[in-house]
Amino acid sequence: MPVQGFCWFLCCRQGFNLLRRDYGEKEEEESFELRNKEDLTCNGRGPLEVTLSQPTRTANGTNGHSLSEVPDEMKSLIIEKSKMGLEEDPELLVKGWLFREVRGSWIKQQCYWFVLSQDSLDYYSSSERGARRLGTLVLTNLCSVIWPDKQTFKETGYWSITVYGRKHCYKLYTKHFNEAVHWACAVQKVIDTKAPVETPTQLLIRDIEENKFNPEVVDNIYQHNPILKHTQSPLYAPLLPFPYGSLEHTYHSGKGYSTVREEAVKLFNCLQQLESARDPVPLIQGVLQTCLDLRPLRDEVYCQLVKQTSCTPQPHTAAHLRYWQLLTCMSCTFLPGPGVLKYLRFHLKRIQSQFPDSEMDNYASFIGEALEKTRCRECVPSWEEIQVLMGRQEMLCTVHYPGPGSCQLHISSHTTANEVVRRMLEKLGLKESRNTFSLFEQNAHWERAVGGSTIIADILTSLSAKEPDSGSQWRLCFKLYCLLDADAISVDSIEYLFLFEQCHEMVVRGQLPACEEDLQTLAALRLQSVIGDFSTHSPCPPLDELFPSHMVEARLLMPPCAPPALLPATQPPAQGCPPSQRFPGGLLGGALWNHTATAAHKQKVEQDLRLRSRLKEEAAAIMSIVVEAWKGLAGYSRRDSMAAYLTIARQWSGFGCTLYEVDFYISSTGSFSQKLWLGVAATCVSLYRQGEAEALESFPYGQICSYGVSDSNTFKITAGDRDLLFETTKLTEIMQLMNAYFSAIRRQRGRGDDVVSITEGTAIEVGFHHLPPTPTPTLLELPSHPV
């Protein structure tokens, strides 16, 4: 009896050593093991013979599996190979001494004899024949290799490679770069030769697809495979295969994610929490955000949701409908891969046949329609959108247009800017206009045209996430985009109001070159058109809403000899000290505290106070002039005031163009040193000195051979034999507008669509639009979408 007990103790000890060596963890083994395609076809199993279940706990806390139940792949991990001599194995590819990082030891790196074969990477205590094998990393096509990098060499003095396996991670070091590269290449070559690994879930999805017209077989598959059905138990492994390895070397890791496999298991836990959550919206947003950041997890979450909505014990409860609500949000945000999409569509039809005229039937129908329209979103749906989707409703979107007007439109998660523009044209009666319109993201100081294929829900989400700029709220605005024929606009139309309001925006921003007297007159006409006749009880808007603010500063910087009425809008002073010397840090900029120059600091503070006081005095003086001019306009109707305003604005030859601030490349100096305005209009592209009304040079579209982005911030136009280079931050906007004008010209000549295209900013690549030298220019567009 003592001998038998001693033998039993040795067997148990050897078995536990082998398991600890190969599995390397104390936690539960993954319940859904991976299979190679070859292994599954060789054992003769049919599609209905795949039977899997979640691991069950025994009284001692271990999984209820015996060693005989370990699958073939795991058995290969515990074959004792140390009895065979290293020289006797014909499959050895590479062998040699390497340092391995050892955790839990005061010696961080230890030297071992490593041997690479066609199936695994093993290491031994020595290179002698019969040496004890200390560890094995089985190589499959899911393993990954991280190549040596200079940063590790600088920190440690060693070149390192990292091999990730299912349960192990080997960090190996050598002093020789060529040796590290040789090992990395060899291991990667073995990984590349391995057959693709499929999970049982993938095999069962394929079986369901093959037997989808045989309900009895499909029901039998679900009945005998708990992996396909709803469960309250945790998930220990993903349903789909993911590569092993550190997230930072495989996928996005900017938000502190762990490996993709671990995140997949965490997501299933979040799904199960939906059943008991008081407010499901934060959990739903978290799942969607993870899927947005980690693209490979989208199919995994779809499979998990199909699993949790299949064969549910209580399908009509509110807790179970949470899964359908998340599936609805997923279907409106991400489109699954082709294989998972087929599986999902089959699941929706199966649910509809099992539960007709139920809430699940309604959700399944809504999801099926959404999948027909969904494209990948740029933003996670907002709290408001998720609430709407949970009720299968549409959102209300407020679209502003020039003036105080706005429209409310019902939109879905798939509505694009194109659709909103068309509906706004119908609502406002602008379908017959020869000019073109677009949506803009806008606040008081900034605006940007929205690409035609952009999802409006994404725009609303991004606008709600932006912080207000100096109290100015972000909004979605419908405006004129390409002014092709200003003379054809009727004075009584709403389009005329658009033209008037957008012209005033240019004036306030200082983008209409005019003398100070004209600008004061325009301010008075603006007051007359908005408020009417002067009255002491009439509320007067602040000066910066009527008059360009930089002109007030220009009056302070202007030398006494220069007449104020002739100073251009943004022309710098011609004489006197430079502004940077007279007003350090800008006109209103304060001085930094200097502990060694207290007196100088006080002097600067006093100077700033004096400047602020003078600035208020100048503003009050200008406002008094504007008010006097306003009084002289008594009796002018709103229509007359707007007409007079636009008459003055039209005196500028560049009226109707859009100005962009650029740095012009001067070939003689070899640098971008001259700041100019690049004006893009309906017929030409012009260059202006900032504040000057006359163009330095104009280039009709018929003379432009090509235009495009030459690098990240340089725009190039080729006109004849000249190459014009501009450095600007508005590359996307310039490309969009030039594309739109060329498309409008082509449309008017009967060679294009009814709607102008605006190229997406994300579609702009390094390259050029080459235009044939014909009297009527044509445009070879980048991938674009109509607006």
From TrEMBL:
Residue span of region Disordered: 45-66
UniProt-annotated location(s): Cytoplasm
Domain of life, per lineage: Eukaryota
Record-linked InterPro entries: Actin_motor_Myosin (IPR051724), Band_41_domain (IPR019749), FERM/acyl-CoA-bd_prot_sf (IPR014352), FERM_2 (IPR035963), FERM_central (IPR019748), FERM_domain (IPR000299), IRS_PTB (IPR002404), MyoX_FERM_C (IPR041797)
CDD domains per UniProt: FERM_B-lobe (cd14473), FERM_C_MyoX (cd13202)
SUPFAM superfamilies the record matches: PH domain-like, Second domain of FERM, Ubiquitin-like
UniProt xrefs under PROSITE patterns: FERM_3, MYTH4, PH_DOMAIN, RA
Domain Ras-associating: 406-441
Pfam family, one: MyTH4
Domain MyTH4 residue range list: 230-390
One annotated Gene Ontology cellular component of this protein: cytoplasm
Keywords assigned by UniProt, alphabetized: ATP-binding, Cytoplasm, Motor protein, Nucleotide-binding
Gene Ontology molecular function: actin binding; ATP binding
Record family assignment: Belongs to the TRAFAC class myosin-kinesin ATPase superfamily. Myosin family.
Name listed for the protein in its UniProt record: Unconventional myosin-X-like isoform X2
Source organism per UniProt: Salvelinus namaycush (Lake trout)
Species lineage: Eukaryota, Metazoa, Chordata, Craniata, Vertebrata
